[in-house]
Automatic annotation (TrEMBL):
<feature type="transmembrane region" description="Helical">
    <location>
        <begin position="79"/>
        <end position="94"/>
    </location>
</feature>
<keyword id="KW-0472">Membrane</keyword>
<keyword id="KW-1133">Transmembrane helix</keyword>
<feature type="transmembrane region" description="Helical">
    <location>
        <begin position="54"/>
        <end position="73"/>
    </location>
</feature>
<feature type="transmembrane region" description="Helical">
    <location>
        <begin position="7"/>
        <end position="25"/>
    </location>
</feature>
<dbReference type="GO" id="GO:0005886">
    <property type="term" value="C:plasma membrane"/>
</dbReference>
<dbReference type="Pfam" id="PF02588">
    <property type="entry name" value="YitT_membrane"/>
</dbReference>
<feature type="transmembrane region" description="Helical">
    <location>
        <begin position="106"/>
        <end position="125"/>
    </location>
</feature>
<feature type="transmembrane region" description="Helical">
    <location>
        <begin position="31"/>
        <end position="47"/>
    </location>
</feature>
<dbReference type="Pfam" id="PF10035">
    <property type="entry name" value="DUF2179"/>
</dbReference>
<dbReference type="InterPro" id="IPR003740">
    <property type="entry name" value="YitT"/>
</dbReference>
<dbReference type="InterPro" id="IPR019264">
    <property type="entry name" value="DUF2179"/>
</dbReference>
<keyword id="KW-1003">Cell membrane</keyword>
<dbReference type="InterPro" id="IPR051461">
    <property type="entry name" value="UPF0750_membrane"/>
</dbReference>
<keyword id="KW-0812">Transmembrane</keyword>
<feature type="domain" description="DUF2179">
    <location>
        <begin position="220"/>
        <end position="274"/>
    </location>
</feature>
<feature type="transmembrane region" description="Helical">
    <location>
        <begin position="153"/>
        <end position="178"/>
    </location>
</feature>
């Protein structure tokens, strides 16, 4: 239950960041950076009496109905919450906060708007949800045209940026495309940062003391390997473990006190699946 509450809290913060980036960077500068929100920005230009938030709600409802009919209703409560939460967030900002452009410089709007949006989207994705819209369209294209999900997402975003180019001109269209490209790359890097851990191998004569510290004090597992020194030809033990950053600092200090001659290698692992870390899905 605690994890579920935490996930929904993270999703809520994520959709707030996305909504702020859309309302204060994208919409005032007509940057239709892909997805349903980008398409809503284009439609809003031709029908200004229709608020972007309302348009996103309408399109998401239509997409969920179509997806339910053609690809089944396997969305998950988190995705439905994130999708409609974002729509409500956009509507609320437009209705009560009178949003305006933080900057009129298209380059700055594209870069900073996308960075804020990417952080929010990464938080949503990392909680095992999505904001619907584009993902639903991608799944429909995947089913009926045998396109990979990644290519389908790119195709949808490309169509939206093409419409932005036709509607707002080449400059705005190209900056919208830049936002799409930055967004995809940045989301991946941020998610990697959320999930990154330290992968550690320790060669030490005090391997038993170190492994006990990992298990009892850090409450993590470890694996013991038999090894043999290439130079000394002596049998040795290697301790392998995966730890978070703060846990690694504690372990390093412990080893420094108990075996200053220990040999340690550290590498970065961007995701770990299994007991004690992220669940296998």
């Amino acid at each position: 239950m605690k994890k579920v509450i935490k996930d929904y809290f993270i999703i809520t913060i994520g959709i707030i960041l996305v909504a702020l980036s859309v309302e204060y960077f994208f919409i005032p500068n007509n940057l239709a950076a892909g997805g349903v929100t980008g398409f809503a920005i284009v439609i809003n230009y031709y029908f200004p009496f229709m608020e972007t938030g309302i348009l996103v709600i309408i399109m998401n409802v239509i997409l969920f109905v179509v997806a339910f009919i053609f690809i089944g209703g396997n969305f998950g409560a988190k995705t439905i919450y994130a999708s409609f939460g974002l729509s409500v967030g956009l509507w609320f900002i437009e209705k009560f906060m009178n949003p305006m452009a933080v900057t009129r410089d298209l380059m700055l709007a594209a870069i900073f708007g996308t960075l804020i949006s990417s952080i929010g989207m990464a938080m949503v994705f990392n909680a095992n949800a999505s904001t619907g819209g584009t993902d639903i369209l991608a799944k429909i294209l995947n089913k009926f045209f045998d396109l990979d999900i990644g290519k389908s997402l790119l195709a949808v975003d490309f169509i939206v940026t093409l419409l932005a180019t036709i509607t707002f001109g080449v400059d705005v269209g190209l900056y919208s495309l830049l936002s799409v490209m930055i967004n995809g790359f940045t989301i991946d890097r941020i998610i990697d940062g959320f999930n990154s851990v330290k992968e550690i191998i320790i060669i030490s004569s005090n391997w038993e003391v170190i492994s006990n510290y990992i298990i009892k004090n850090l409450e993590r597992g470890c694996t013991i390997f038999d090894g043999k020194g290439g130079f000394t030809q002596k049998d040795t033990k290697m301790v392998y473990t995966v730890l978070g950053r703060s846990q690694f600092i504690k372990l390093k200090n412990f080893i420094k006190e108990n075996d200053p001659k220990a040999f340690i290698t550290i590498s970065e692992a961007y995701d770990v699946l299994g007991e004690g870390f992220n669940d296998l899905h």
